[in-house]
Amino acid sequence: MKEQNAILEVNGLEVAYGSFKAVKNISFNVYGGEIFGLLGPNGAGKTSTLSAIEGLLKPQAGQIAICGYDIQQKPLYARANMGVQLQSTSFQPELTVTEILQLYAGVYGLSLSQHQLQAILKDIKLEDAASKRFGQLSGGQQQRVSLFITTIHEPQLVLLDEPTTGLDPQSRRQLWARIEAMRDKGHAIVLTTHSMEEAEAICDRIAIIDHGRILTIDSPQSIIDEHRHQPEVIQASRKGKITLEDVFIGLTGAAVRS
Ligand SMILES: Nc1ncnc2c1ncn2[C@@H]1O[C@H](COP(=O)(O)OP(=O)(O)OP(=O)(O)O)[C@@H](O)[C@H]1O
């Protein structure tokens, strides 16, 4: 991680829906070459935070800059530096993999030669599925197409909302490897996840959010070390050793959110 290179700056972010404040004074930076995880129980404010970063909703207060461009003041510049993973349901199920790749390349003003297309299909391990319809792909295959399209314009900031939910362990590992490869190329990656295992496996830093506030922000191991002696964390421990999940439950409480 290169500390000097803040790709995403979030400062004093507040998001409200009517009179309800979903995000309350959240600040964090994400740097080139790091994977940053947003963790929190259902309703904590993760998606609201991502939506504000994407510029899909106007914050009640605070500033968000992507590569120095304010998302509200300079949305086109900010978005040019950002890749947002689309949900699989956003793609036309009747289009083939090739058609989808060509379509989205076109959206970003790129035209793919036959040679480039073959290289991409090989890279995302879908050589044999080039003419398959998107709707006929497995969940893991759809995620690979979706992740590739997110980064087709080589954005500096990549936003992934629960990228591996529903994938089998093999597909999840493969997606982790792709996300890590993006990190190693210098992209800044922000992802949300409910998987503590995922956060520990690939995130360089995480923020645990609850009720719209950041409770703690650091590397997974530092967060475990910092909170391992708290009584709520020890009480949450199930395996005799303190895990990130124990800290998460200890900090956010064991009650299921409505
Ligand atoms: N469009 C909306 N109108 C009103 N309230 C909303 C809206 N979107 C979200 N909320 C509320 O804002 C709070 C934060 O929601 P958000 O979707 O950001 O949480 P989350 O951390 O992404 O949750 P999850 O893990 O369930 O996806 C919740 O209480 C939610 O009910």
Features:
258 residues, Rossmann fold, 6-stranded mixed sheet, 10 strands, globular, binds adenosine-5'-triphosphate
Walk me through what this model shows.
The protein has two domains: 6-81 and 156-252, P-loop containing nucleotide triphosphate hydrolases (Rossmann fold), CATH 3.40.50; 95-154. The model has no long low-confidence stretch (mean pLDDT 92). By secondary structure, it is α/β, with parallel strands linked by helices. Helix content is 36%, strand content 24%. A hairpin with a 2-residue loop joins strand 9 and strand 10 (213-218). The chain has helices spanning 46-54, 75-80, 97-107, 114-123, 139-150, 169-184, 196-202, 220-227, 231-236, 244-252, and strands spanning 6-17, 20-31, 34-39, 61-66, 69-70, 82-84, 157-161, 188-192, 205-210, 213-218. The two termini are 37 Å apart. It has ten helices and ten strands. The strands form two sheets. It has a six-stranded mixed sheet, sandwiched between helices. The site of adenosine-5'-triphosphate has 11 residues, from strand 2 and helix 1.
What is the straight-line distance between the termini?
A: 37 Å
Low-confidence stretches: none
Total count of helical runs of at least 4 residues: 10
| Residue-averaged pLDDT | 92
CATH superfamily of the largest domain: P-loop containing nucleotide triphosphate hydrolases
- The count of DSSP E runs of length 2 or more, i.e. the number of strands, is 10
Main beta sheet:
6 strands, mixed
Order of helices and strands: EEEHEEHEHHHEHEHEEHHH
Write the CATH architecture name of the largest domain.
3-Layer(aba) Sandwich
User: Which secondary-structure class do the elements indicate?
Assistant: alpha/beta
Overall structural domain count: 2
Task: Kindly report the CATH topology of the largest domain.
Answer: Rossmann fold
What fraction strand?
A: 15-25%
Helix content range: 25-40%
Query: Globular, elongated, flat, extended or rod-shaped: what is the shape?
Result: globular
Strand order of the largest sheet: 6-7-8-3-9-10
Q: What's the gyration radius in Å?
A: 19 Å
In this entry the ligands are:
adenosine-5'-triphosphate
CATH class descriptor of the largest domain: Alpha Beta
